[in-house]
Amino acid sequence: MLATSTRPPTVEEVKKLTITDLAIASGLADSLRDRLREFVQIDPFTQGVADPFGEKDDCTYSVVLDRENPNRVVAIIVNKKDSMPQLPWSAILGERLAKVSMEKSDARELKRELAPKEWGNFYPYRRAGKVAGYFMFAFQICGQR
């Protein structure tokens, strides 16, 4: 059963996820990454990449959720505001996933819950050779606090 309305989960809702939920989100994230590669170049490593939650407000923040259980975070996306035209999200997400915008502070809090370390959580992605944003996928979850 797909959820009728989708909103980002709270940290408390994320804390209630089971290992099964995390495994499902991880599988969905792997499929999402494969579809994204049709449209962007995803850098192969996250090492040395600081979380894109710096002082500047030159980014937009969103989360990709599983419509069957919107508390399952599949990915966190940080896009640079000056990046090229929008990606075809409906084609990328399909029927199962939903992309929901978030405030920077809420995205940061959610990220800290899922991946508490401060470096190496986000893969940069490029369009036309230029970094256009960053992805953090569910298979990178390194533990909940």
Secondary-structure blueprint:
Layout: H1 11-15, H2 19-36, E1 41-42, E2 59-66, E3 69-80, H3 89-93, E4 97-102, H4 104-114, E5 123-127, E6 130-137
Antiparallel strand pairs: 1-5, 2-3, 2-4, 3-6, 5-6
Summarize the model shown.
Helix content is 27%, strand content 28%. The protein has helices spanning 11-15, 19-36, 89-93, 104-114; strands at 41-42, 59-66, 69-80, 97-102, 123-127, 130-137. A hairpin with a 2-residue loop joins β2 (59-66) and β3.
Question: What attributes does this structure have?
Answer:
about 140 residues; alpha+beta; six-stranded antiparallel beta sheet; 4 helices; 6 strands; about 30% strand; globular
Secondary-structure element pattern, one letter each: HHEEEHEHEE
> Mind telling me the C-alpha Rg?
14 Å
Number of helices: 4
* Beginning-to-end CA distance, first to last residue: 29 Å
Class per helix and strand makeup: alpha+beta
Shape: globular
Helix content range: 25-40%
Largest sheet: 6 strands, antiparallel
> What's the pLDDT, averaged over the residues?
86
Walk across the major sheet and give the strand order: 1-5-6-3-2-4
**Strand segment count:** 6
